[in-house]
Design brief:
By secondary structure, the protein is an alpha+beta fold. It has 3 helices and 5 strands, in the order E-H-H-E-E-H-E-E. The longest helix has 17 residues.
Length: about 130
């Protein structure tokens, strides 16, 4: 009888879409890093905060946060899901703007990031940390 494949459960946090969501997401990520014995969670906290803030401001419905290690390279992946249809984009530079630079900054400190639409509606925005 073949051995059953072991599927590891992905740590998941479901948040209400409100101004507490970024803080709770940062705490969730910090807890995962502590469990894994990773001492420096600074970039991870910045990334999850940016993605959750974008979902809170521009998405819809509850916000779902997942933090896991990529099974191929061991790097940490942060995923943030919401029911909104709008896709996050890095806007053209506007030196007079008072906001809108978060994704650009995030893109510079992660290995890769992207967005995938969900069949049931909404999207997952993800970032792979270095």
């Amino acid at each position: 009888m073949p051995a059953a494949a072991r599927v590891e459960e992905i740590p998941t946090l479901v948040l209400e879409s409100d101004d507490r969501a970024p803080r709770l997401a940062r705490r969730f990520l910090a807890e995962r890093f502590r469990e894994w014995g990773v001492g420096d969670d600074y970039v991870g906290r910045l990334v999850v905060c940016e993605l959750v803030t974008n979902s809170y401001l521009h998405g819809e419905g509850p916000i779902v946060v997942r933090v896991f290690r990529d099974e191929h390279d061991g790097l940490v992946v942060v995923e943030v899901e919401d029911a909104g249809e709008g896709l996050p984009l890095i806007p053209p530079e506007n030196y007079a703007a008072t906001s809108g630079r978060g994704l650009l900054l995030m893109a510079e400190i992660v290995q890769r990031w992207g967005v995938r639409p969900l069949n049931e509606g909404g999207k997952v925005t993800w970032a792979k940390l270095r």
